Amino acid sequence: MMLEEFLHNGVVRRVGQALFTLLGVAVVVFVMLRAIPGDQITSNLGTEAAALTPDQRAALEAYYGIDQPLFSQFFSWLGNVLTGNLGFSSRAQTSVAELTLQALPVTFELAVLSIAFALVMGILLGMLSASRPNSARDAAGQVVGLAGLSIPAFLLATTLMSVLASEFGFNPNGEPYARLLQDPLLNLKQMFLPALVLGFGVAAPIMRTTRTAVLEVKSGDFVRTARAKGVPPRRLQIRHVLRNALVPIVTMTGLQFGYLLGGAVVIEQVFSIPGIGRQVLLGIQQNEYALVQSTVLVIALAFVLVNLLTDLLYRIIDPRVRAA
Amino acid sequence: MTLATDQNAEITARTVRPRALIRTLTSNRSTFVGLVITVTLAIVTVLALFGALPHDPLAQDPPERLRAPSGDFWFGTDQFGRDVFSRVAAGVGNSVLIAVVAVAFATLVGTAAGLVAGFYRGFSDTAIGGVTNILFAFPPLLLALALASVFDRNWFTIAVAIAVVYTPIFVRVTRGPVLSLREVEYVRAAVSTGQSRLMVMLKHVLPNITSIIIVQVTLSLSWAVLTEASLSFLGLGTPPPAPSLGSMIYEARTLVTVAPWTMLAPGIVVVLLVVGLNLLGDGLRDTYDPRNRGNR
């Protein structure tokens, strides 16, 4: 029953499309790495690579597998990735998979906290704006929304951090990063500002979507009927209006995940949080291409999965999509 | 960025009439503010690109370092005695140049691909759709970052990296309206009179999506400015000593308590630039989006 319904809804096609996209993502990441001047040999040996004899060079090329045609290089790399071998980081002296497993939960926590902040700020402000369109409170809500869209996360982050540290002595991020399970209190203190700043950027589009959706739902006949029936205003707002406005809000929240992952690179850097975004940046700064390649792939994978989930969630919330 | 894609799907295709456009830009207060900010900063860009600045943005003058804003140094000086005003103006010039080149590239390539995909359908649609999906699978800033790390960095390669990120938006935003336009009677009539499909596409379809493109260009410019600033903040933008708003803010983060102007000047200007473009883009969108008409 359930399965039949799913097949009918094009869910299978949607999943197939996501898999195809992921393959394309792998190709792009692979090509990007090959486009970098130099190879594993020059990146490991630096200028000494020039002193290699042709024989030595050929031996090293065979060792790294870069004497093979690009096509087979791609598939052996893909095979490695699929079996969990993401490469080795020579600086950290550990596997990239290990590093990624350490970093992923950190970014995941940051993402969850930011989304929570964003939903609270965005939905409250959006409903406030929509409660009296074109009034002063609407204008105030819209200004906050515009600020969220226009203030770069790195600017807000650096300003807040330096002002709070110098004026109030609040600088939890000056201490070494505490993992959530080791020192929950310090961890939450360290995550508070980063999540607030990231959430502020995500709140703006959520606020705008909420405002538009609530205004649209409010003009519906069923809301008038409910009001006429004597449904108390607060109950009307939440049970009747917000519930029906939820579909675009959920979609928008899912779509913002990409912004969040990009923003995480900046925020993790500013607040010294050892997440997945900082890992990419460190890899780039230290010319550790295996690290960059695999981490970018993991992030894109996460992004594709979240988009797929949003899409499927959307079908569950809104019966009209299922029928389409 | 996904925000606009989503909302633009609702914009009906319309041609742009210059006089109506001017009326739009001047009748709404916030749109007008956006226009004024954008034009002012565009002038600053031109002046900076031609070197018409009060001081040399690169010249160091140690005895004059960390001076507060004054008649001589309007926004003060930084830790090397360089004039912050001139550096901010040059940074605006740099940002705007990169954003404009990036968005111009994204507009041309993205619109062309969107037109072809929507008008010719078939294989080209599938292929273009596939590539678009792949590029959309990367978080925008991350893709720009990865691309910027691959190239030898200069202002042009940064612009290309940003362009690649924003091209798929233009594909998605134009393809939808083109799909419906190809079924409209006058387009079918034009095809049936024997005009080449390319001519029909350029003469009858393209003019009808200009409003969508203009809105998208304005909003994309603001994201491109933000992306460029973020890249240079992370040290992956135009390499120093070329002044850039992002790297100025990065350098100022340790000076903010002693010399707040070193942070405030580039910070306020980057926000102004993005706010101006956003207000302009929102105003244009409201004009061309039938759902919002009468709402304001």
TrEMBL record, chain B:
InterPro entries: BP-dependent_transpt_permease (IPR050366), MetI-like (IPR000515), MetI-like_sf (IPR035906)
GO CC annotations on file: plasma membrane
Keyword Phosphoprotein: no
One BP annotation, GO: transmembrane transport
Subcellular location: Cell membrane
Keywords on record: Cell membrane, Membrane, Transmembrane, Transmembrane helix, Transport
Gene3D superfamilies reported for this sequence: MetI-like (1.10.3720.10)
Membrane topology designation: Multi-pass membrane protein
Residue stretches spanning the membrane: 32-53, 96-120, 127-149, 155-173, 205-226, 258-281
PROSITE patterns, per the entry: ABC_TM1
Main location: membrane
Annotated ranges, domain ABC transmembrane type-1: 92-281
Family annotation (Pfam families): BPD_transp_1
Family per similarity comment: Belongs to the binding-protein-dependent transport system permease family.
Name of the protein in question: ABC transporter permease
